[in-house]
């Protein structure tokens, strides 16, 4: 389990979300610069900004971040598993 990319990327994304939620990353730089999938979604953020509550907006960004890094880790694990089978 600890050798899986999906675990470590998921764990690190949780740490970044906690760091951001504590207010230490007040401009969301760490959150967005360490998450390329969030940078790609910034163009579509008008749908998230349509929600009036800022806490819910940030919760949506956190969920997208954690799920995105889990999926990226899952793809990397699948790639290495395929390499080992060959």
Describe the fold and architecture:
The chain is mostly helical. It is built from 5 helices and no strands. The protein is elongated and about 50 Å long. The two termini are 22 Å apart. The mean pLDDT is 91.
Quick description:
74% of the residues lie in helices and 0% in strands.
Choose one word for the global shape.
elongated
The biggest sheet, with number of strands, parallel, antiparallel or mixed sense and barrel status, is: none
Give the N-to-C terminal Cα separation.
22 Å
- Strand content is under 5%
Mean of residue pLDDT values: 91
Low-pLDDT ranges = none
Q: Can you give keywords for this protein?
A:
mainly alpha; 74% helix; single chain; 86 residues; 5 helices
List strands and helices in order, with pairings.
Elements: H1 5-21, H2 29-33, H3 36-41, H4 46-49, H5 54-85
Helix pairs in contact: 1-5
